[in-house]
Design goal:
The chain folds into 3 domains: 86 residues, Beta Barrel (OB fold (Dihydrolipoamide Acetyltransferase, E2P)), CATH 2.40.50; 70 residues, Irregular (Dihydrolipoamide Transferase); 222 residues, Chloramphenicol Acetyltransferase (2-Layer Sandwich), CATH 3.30.559.10. The chain contains 10 helices and 20 strands. Helix 7 packs across helix 8 and helix 7 packs across helix 9. The radius of gyration is 30 Å and the shape is elongated. This is Dihydrolipoamide acetyltransferase component of pyruvate dehydrogenase complex. Belongs to the 2-oxoacid dehydrogenase family. Keywords: Acyltransferase, Lipoyl, Transferase. Its cofactor is (R)-lipoate.
Length: 425
């Protein structure tokens, strides 16, 4: 008895919906015959029989949602009286073939076509075989049930075990001996089209951190825009005063202040989840990370207790820490403990993005380029200095409504910067 478990046919899928059964219990089936149509969030797949025999049991009905790895039907093989065995496809998705296609030798112009149709391989692998000019019938599969996978084609070529089809042959498609074909990678490397650099150091840590964030946190990104005219006027008015203090005043300190005020009102944005205890941790301290680009990668210096510092103090600390980050002089204390992160890509450009949350934080705000745009105010078209901002947030902690209200509050404070003074505490 063969138990067929729902395989992963969508590159990391967790479940699929049974769309249509193509057979009934008690029907005889042959190996590779289409059995059931399954829909995932990425693909619609037609799963085929792993063996020839009789369908003994269909365990789910159309419309059911089934988790990957769950047995969905069983087949009693011919002359099989043994205990049930499990048939699982772990990596390679099953062959997808139209259910209404009937193999008829009269309709097939050559024997290789008929034989290739019986080979277990995905459409992607079949296409790769054609591009490599490999007769897929000659390849031995190492996947489940003898399925041919990508590495089998590569191994087949490297071992020079194939014969190249002569396009000038008659309908018998006589196979001729062929010289070894170098791998695609060897060709690319020989032409100098690729350069390989070991992923290590800070870049390796960044990669690991990003994978951890995306694989753990369900990201959602909300994009909005705000007028910067009044804030620019205030910044320009303060320029002489900041110059006298030898402080380079940018827009970023104002954003830090506005964000801190909003975080105090929307506490789930300044939070995290303790995975071990399954608890939401609301933080009453405000350590703001400032994503900084360096030659070694993205470093996030942390402004500790940002709510307790003035605009000028924030401006000076942000500048000093950016210099230290680029010189590689930041201490561990200076790059850990952030509760919320800002990614200011405005000086580089871009309208919006989907920034990745700095795990285990609950949200990150990306600031984009500032530019004059035509907008409508009081039913009239006017030019305003506009900027987009993108908020990615943890949907386990934060609902969409809360995220929008949070960015609305930031907009209110920055579009009317006098409120920053009123709200500071």
């Amino acid at each position: 008895m063969v138990e067929f478990k729902l395989p992963d046919v969508g590159e990391g899928m967790h479940e699929g919906e049974i769309i249509k059964w193509l057979i009934k219990e008690g029907e005889s089936v042959t190996q590779d015959q289409p059995i059931v149509e399954v829909q995932t969030d990425k693909v619609n797949a037609e799963l085929t029989a792993p063996a020839t025999g009789v369908v003994k049991k269909i365990l789910f009905t159309e419309g059911d949602i089934v988790e990957v790895g769950t047995t969905i039907f069983t087949i009693q093989e011919e002359n099989d009286s043994s205990v049930p065995e499990t048939f699982v496809i772990e990596k390679e998705p099953p062959v997808m073939q139209p259910a209404d296609v009937k193999v008829n030798s009269e309709d097939i112009t050559s024997k290789p076509h008929l034989e290739a149709a019986r080979v277990l391989a995905t459409p992607y692998v079949r296409q790769m075989a054609r591009e490599m000019k490999v007769d897929i019938q000659q390849v031995k599969g190492s996947g489940p049930a003898g399925r041919i996978i990508e590495s089998d084609l590569q191994q087949f070529i490297e071992n020079n075990q194939f014969k190249q089809v002569n396009d000038n042959n008659n309908d018998n498609n006589i196979l001729q001996d062929a010289a070894p074909i170098e791998t695609v990678q060897e060709k690319v490397m020989e032409k100098g089209l690729e350069e390989r650099i070991l992923l290590k150091g800070i870049r390796k840590k960044i990669a690991e951190h990003m994978v951890k964030s995306v694989s753990t946190i369900p990201h959602v990104t909300h994009v909005d825009e705000l007028e910067m005219d009044r804030l620019k006027e205030l910044k320009d008015q303060l320029k002489t005063y900041s110059d006298n203090k030898d402080i380079k005043l940018t827009f970023l300190p104002f954003f830090v202040k506005a964000i801190v005020i909003a975080l105090k009102e929307f506490k789930t944005l300044n939070a995290s989840i303790d995975e071990k205890t399954n608890e939401m941790v609301l933080k009453n301290y405000y350590h703001i990370g400032i994503a900084t680009n360096t030659n070694d990668g993205l470093i996030v210096p942390v402004i500790k207790n940002a709510d307790q510092k003035t605009i000028f103090q924030l401006a000076d600390e942000i500048r000093q820490m950016a210099i230290q980050a680029r010189e590689g002089k930041l201490s561990l204390e200076q790059i850990t403990g952030s509760t919320f992160t800002i990614s200011n890509v405005g000086p580089i450009g871009g309208l919006h993005a989907t920034p990745i949350i700095n795990y285990p934080e609950a949200a990150i705000l990306a600031l984009h380029k500032m530019e004059p745009r035509m907008v409508v105010r009081d039913l009239e078209g006017v030019i305003r200095l506009m900027m987009n901002m993108s908020l990615s947030f943890d949907h386990r902690l934060i609902d969409g409504v809360t995220a929008v209200r949070f960015t609305n509050r930031i907009k209110e404070l920055l579009e009317n910067p006098i409120l920053l003074v009123v709200e500071m505490r």
